[in-house]
């Protein structure tokens, strides 16, 4: 009788190098790095921990969750923040919101609702390539306002590439495939900025601005600011893709073949109606929390997560829920919150801004906003994971805002939007889920896809100051 024995994990030089480099950087900042005037060793230690963790995250040398837990030990051990303050600074607000967002994603994905949305997009577009690409971009973006960006991307890239294959498309040559790959990846990320529940980064950025600047961006105001930005961004990104790729025509036979995958599911089932009513009531109460202080939106999300499992409601099973929860994201949000607190408490963020961007006080206001958007956009290229990128960007933006007078709502929006959206390289998980299908080369992606994010940066530079001013910030 033979038993299969799992082979040992293979030796990976890249990961070992990542661990060694991270350790050396931590030791350098902890003991050797000169301390600039006006700072203490704790600030250097905070910088070393941040850079070391970024290296471990980017190289994936050890699991994300393990790196996050490492923060809990390194921060107090190195004297950056006392141990009791470490745990009190790790707010549970954002993780509780995440539990609700994962419940929504799990519940929606267990129903035909996503396929109904895809069928509507196909019915609208027919075999018109421009309409098809724009329809897929817009529906991906709108769906990702309410469910996981990754889930939205996976649904529409799967259906889109099925059309390409039925149409006889060839990998590396099909312009339709390239356009759909870039469009779906970009719009899944851009759509996620629309509502506070669309991406964990939105709540994280709002929470950090409240913590560091003392200003609460309400649920309603976030939607007012970011839903139009998301819709316009998705439209422009998808329309841009139709123009920069030479898209081949689609045959009626290809559309008909794929339409069978989104067969008519008939009228909405009782389960789907329950899900929609459940979500609409919860979303409405979150909106109402913007005007009624007694309504705690965090508590609302927790209660509705609980309601989803009550017998008779039963919107999803325990197994479906566990499958939808990204525990590493929840842990990472808690951990990076500690790092961002360290950047502020040690004065490192203020020192960096005063040293590197000392002339910003004399810049025109729109130039300051553009630089804020651009810095965050560039940081996400270097740190292709949203929560750590946001944890680095927001403290710097808050320090720059204190110098230049940029209002807190702009900072919150920039942290959530540009901390989570970049199409320059397909190394962000949302872009990777589309790129890894193999229909576009890395060179062509880099050459053309970056424009989608840069368009968003330009729009945000002019739009965010105007809309936040209207809202009274």
Please outline the major beta sheet.
none
Q: What's the helical proportion of residues?
A: over 70%
Overall 3D form: globular
Distance between the termini: 72 Å
Uncertain stretches: none
Number of helices: 22
Give me the strand/helix succession.
Answer: HHHHHHHHHHHHHHHHHHHHHH
Strand elements, count? 0
Radius of gyration, rounded? Answer: 23 Å
What does it look like?
The chain has helices spanning about 15-30, 40-60, 65-75, 85-90, 95-110, 115-125, 130-145, 150-165, 175-190, 200-215, 220-245, 250-260, 270-290, 295-305, 320-325, 325-345, 350-355, 365-380, 385-405, 410-420, 430-435, 440-470. By secondary structure, the chain is an all-alpha fold. The chain is globular and about 70 Å long. The mean pLDDT is about 90.
Please provide a brief summary of the model.
The chain is mostly helical and 473 residues long. It contains 22 helices and no strands.
